[in-house]
Design goal:
The protein has 135 residues and is α/β, with parallel strands linked by helices. 30% of the residues lie in helices and 22% in strands. A hairpin with a 5-residue loop joins strand 6 and strand 7.
């Protein structure tokens, strides 16, 4: 009997959940499911350029497990591109990190706020209103 899958930490859900070739009706395409933890591994390693050790720490898994997740994601994306399949992002054993990250343009301070608390009006360090949401 295999070990139960450890819950993987995911920073946020993607804005887009379905990707398919242009000009082909979705009902004619075979689908490949990319799990949310595979999506997060692509984001951390390929988009943010993190080393596997640091990315694994962010996802709350071992470095080896992170490498396996990333390899699976790369294989699914390659299959989607080469064979013209639809890719859906869903599922997985995850815990969603319920925080938003903000940064001040004036002093460079970064901080997080939980979802549901509204947008902060000013920087916690310098009281500037010149802030933006990072994630």
């Amino acid at each position: 009997m295999p070990r139960p899958t450890k819950c993987r930490r995911v920073q946020y859900s993607p804005d887009y959940l379905i990707f398919n070739p242009a000009g082909v009706p979705a009902r004619q395409l075979k689908e490949i499911d990319l799990t949310l933890d595979e999506f997060e591994s692509i984001r951390l390693a390929d988009l943010e350029g993190l080393y596997h050790v640091e990315a694994a720490r962010k996802m709350n898994v071992s470095r080896q497990t992170f490498g396996n997740i990333l390899s699976s994601a790369h294989n699914k994306i390659a299959e989607m591109l080469v064979h013209g399949k639809a890719l859906t992002v869903k599922g997985g054993t995850i815990s969603l990190k319920n925080e938003r990250l903000f940064k001040c343009n004036d002093c460079g301070a970064k901080w997080s706020e939980p979802f549901g608390t509204g947008r902060p009006g000013y920087c916690q360090s310098c009281n500037s209103e010149n802030i933006y949401r990072m994630k």
